[in-house]
Structure formats: C-alpha cells, structure tokens
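re: ur question from earlier - yeah i can do the single chain one, its not a big deal. heres the input i used so u can compare w yours
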Amino acid sequence: MYIVILAGGSGTRFWPLSRTARPKQLISITGDQSMLQRTVERVLPLHPKRILIITNHLQAVETERQMHSYDSVPIDVIAEPAARNTAPAIGLAAALIAAQDPSGIMVVLPADHFIKNESMLRNTLTFAGQAAGNGYLVTLGILPSRPETGYGYIEAGMDAFNEGTSHGPFPVKRFVEKPPLAEALRYLEEGNYFWNSGMFIWRADTILAEMQTFMPSLYNKLVVLKTSIAAEGHTVVNEQIATLYESIESVSIDYGIMEKSTKVQMVPVEMGWSDVGSWSALPEVIEPDSDGTVCVNAAGHIAIDSSDCLIYADRRMVATVGVHNIVVVSTPDAILVCDRERCQDVKKVVEQLGTAGMTDYL
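and the output i got, formated as tokens:
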C-alpha cells in the first residue's frame, strides 16, 4: 500500500493563522501537531511501502521540515510548480508509483482532515483495498450525522443502509454538489446518501487506465513521465514535472474521472470525520466549554455574559463581555473578528488583501 497525501491547499478560510507559506495543513489549529503530521501518523500503523506528499512549491520547504522526524517509512515530498487541482496531482502520484509498481494500491488522503476514530479509518482502508485490488475505484462515504449543506454527497446504489450489518462496497450512482437544505434533509431521510470525503483507494494502473479513457491529454503526458522514471530513475522527476505542468488543465478528480467512470464503488464509514473547512468547524474537533465556547492556544479566557464563541489567541489572555456567536483570532500581526455564521467569508478578506497588494499579511 502506498499513501498519497494531497497537501497543496491554501486554507484561506483559516486566515490570519493560515498563510501562503504555512497553510491550514502545515499549522496546528488544535494546539498540538500540524494537520499534515497527524495525517502521516494515523497511517503509519498500516506500514505503507512509501508515502508521497504532493504539495505546492511555496510550501515544500516547510513540508519537508515537518517530515524530518519520520524515518520508519520512505517519504517523498513532490512539489507542484503550479496549482492544477486534484486530478493532475493524483495522476502525478500514480505515474511515480506505476513506474516501479504498476499494480500498487494507492490510498489518496487530504492532508487537512480531522478523524476522531483513526483505527476505524485504517480498518476501512484495508477493507477498501480488497475492492481496489480487483480493479475498482473506491471512495469512502461518510455516514451523515446532520443535513449538511457545506459538503458534497455520494448517492450509493443500495436499497438501504443498515449500520453494522452492511459494509459495502456499494456501486456509486452519482456525485452531488453541495445541496440546499431541503435536499440535504431528503438525503438524510433516504439513507443512501453519504458525505463525499475526498478519500480514494485504487491501483495505480487502474486510475491511469481511467485517465486514458476520460482525460487522454493528461494521460499522454503522464506516460512520458512514467517512461522516463522507469528508464532513468527519480533524478528526472523535477524537470519532467515542470514540463508537465506547463500545459495541463486544472481539473478535479471528481469531475475528471469519478463522475464518469463505471468502476466507482463506495465504502461507508463513521469515524468522527470533519474536513475542518473553516473556523466554525472547531467545535467538531475540540470539545466546547459549558458556555459553548472553544478556546485554543490562549493564556486564558474570561467570559462575562458571553457564549458560543471561537477563540484562537496566540498565547494571550482573552476576555469577552456580552458577546455571543463570534470568532476571535489573534496572531502576532493580525486580528480577525467575525460572526460565526460568516466564517466561509474569511476567504474574501484574503482576496481583498491580495487586491490591495498587502502581501505581508498573506
């Protein structure tokens, strides 16, 4: 089993803590290890043959620094010269693996997710690997706990899902974009819709074959890279990647392959999962206090007639008086104050900073 970790995101909705060179996956939102480090550590018990981390060239140095302490398994940090979404990143990893082990099982994981039950994840990946070995593209579907409008969904081809008795894998009927609330409520009632986790398991040669069918332009470029690696080794990788990324399109793996392939299957799992998409997700990964407030990395917090707040304080004392449902994030050079219902709009702050040329804050 090979682990491929996608770690090239920008994490703009976690500004001002998340910055260009140290985005969400490279920082410690919960006050301990970075999210990338936690992702690596949760898969080490699987004893993977290799871990490949696909990241942005601006984040490569910090990514490599954070990986220095892991020596039980080979870890390669692959720097993309430009962001091209998930399909090229996954295709790149598949070409690198297939050059030496065409039938190798790839597990593709985002670097910035939180998982409470990590042993359940490992058991599920092992189980899904059996279907992947038979030539299927397997994705993990998260058993929904609420009518969430911020996640994409997977409709599974099954009459009903009986927790504890039916583990799949199930054929995938379709992928659904983030739905309105009425649709999300219906999905929850029908019982065969699952949150799209963005986690995948397949053989390297299987995903490349599907790319040959559905993304032939990308596939043809990957074949050149794979052939060069097989003949000359990994010394050619950086130069070849630079050439590859000059001409490829930015396409997600969902749109490019998963929505079109007839080989897609889903394994359902309930493991305390969150994609930690914005500051408002912190109560999913950190237990709030009796007033519903989450306070991280602060010297202390005094609350007077305050509740349901999210605070990240950079080791400072924070006092809140008569405020409710707000976010306060303090870093050495910036402070964010935001309504909890508007956390998705924090990315607009980053956009305006860029437009204004205030790059010191990006």
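The chain has two domains: 2-274, 279-361. not sure if urs matches, ping me
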